[in-house]
From TrEMBL:
Record GO terms (molecular function): methyltransferase activity
CDD domains in the record: AdoMet_MTases
GO biological process, one term: methylation
Pfam family, one: Methyltrans_SAM
Database matches in Gene3D superfamilies: Golgi alpha-mannosidase II, Vaccinia Virus protein VP39
Keyword field: Methyltransferase, S-adenosyl-L-methionine, Transferase
Keyword Membrane: no
Protein name (Swiss-Prot/TrEMBL): 23S rRNA (Cytosine1962-C5)-methyltransferase
Highest taxon, organism lineage: Bacteria
Keyword hit for Methyltransferase: yes
Domain S-adenosylmethionine-dependent methyltransferase: 71-202
Naturally occurring in which organism (per UniProt): Parasphingopyxis lamellibrachiae
């Protein structure tokens, strides 16, 4: 198993402008926002941040909070682009902006492993930026998320990108149950990406808890891959586990397929000084 740090570089519509003292300043197109960031333990490059809004966390540590936005920030969102994929950014109640910019490293990497007719599965696919990144390179994508609102946002992003006619199957479903059914159907995929939350609810109120559900889900994903498959990407945010733990899980579950497993931290490059701000952990298998 290899260890690596994946650092997402700034692009035209996104950048980590500055960070420090438990906060980060980011640009999303024409707007700048301040969000909490406990891992930014250093001092910022500048004490004078100009922003169009800030997410202020709740004081009771329940993960809540609220946005304080200037009048010019559209509540319905605004369009951004990553390479040929266009999508809507929006200030959500969950403190993020309807996509995860540190995933750009994986989007580019997965594109190298698909081609015309490749079959890809995106579990916990959210608003579909990863699905569109794969579909635009010829992959047939099955996109699964428990949130109907997220799936509808994915379809809207496909339309915004001019990709509505690409072969993407949009599914509102519990990701773990869907994967188990695909195993029973004898399905196989060339690649799988999954970004499971720490906890959540399926469309029928199914309870998902990462530590309990992940081992079985990875076992099912392994059964959906075969000797011709190319990749699996697993990411995890805000969890009390190490990259080594999920790396060993992927290595054990997919060991019979050969190939290479790597794991480590995900990070975003700060524009002010070039330092790397950790954001998540990952494990991925490829051949």
């Amino acid at each position: 198993m290899k260890f690596a740090t994946l650092i997402a570089e700034p692009w035209a519509d996104y950048g980590l402008v500055d960070s420090g003292h438990g906060r980060k300043l980011e640009r999303y197109g024409r707007f700048r926002f301040i969000r909490p960031e406990p891992q930014a333990m250093w001092a910022p490059s500048s004490e004078n941040w100009r922003a169009d809004g800030e997410f202020v966390p709740a004081s009771d540590e329940d993960g809540g909070g609220r946005w304080h936005l200037d009048a010019g920030v559209p509540e319905e969102g605004w369009p951004l682009a990553w390479e040929d994929v266009r999508f809507q950014a929006q200030c959500t109640p969950f403190r993020h902006l309807a996509f995860f910019p540190d995933m750009a490293s994986h989007w580019s990497w997965m594109r190298e492993h698909v081609g015309d007719g490749s079959e890809a599965l995106n579990l916990f696919g959210y608003t579909g930026v990863g699905s569109l990144a794969l579909a635009s390179r010829g992959a047939k994508v099955t996109h699964v998320d428990a949130s109907k609102k997220s799936v509808e946002a994915g379809k809207a992003n496909a339309a915004l990108s001019g990709m509505s006619d690409l072969p993407i199957r949009w599914m509102v479903d519990d990701a773990a149950k869907f994967a188990a059914r695909e195993v029973r159907r004898g399905r196989r995929y060339d690649g799988i990406m999954l970004d499971p939350p720490k906890w959540g609810r399926g469309p029928k109120k199914e309870l998902w808890q990462l530590e309990e559900g992940l081992p079985g889900l990875i076992e099912d994903c392994a059964k959906l891959l075969d000797g011709d498959s190319r990749f699996l990407v697993l990411t995890a945010y805000a969890v009390r586990m190490s990259a080594l733990a999920i790396g060993e899980l992927v290595s054990q579950s997919l060991g019979h397929l050969g190939g290479t497993v790597e794991c480590g931290d995900m990070a975003v490059r700060e524009e002010a000084r070039g330092l790397s701000l950790p954001t998540a952990i990952f494990a991925r298998w490829s051949r």
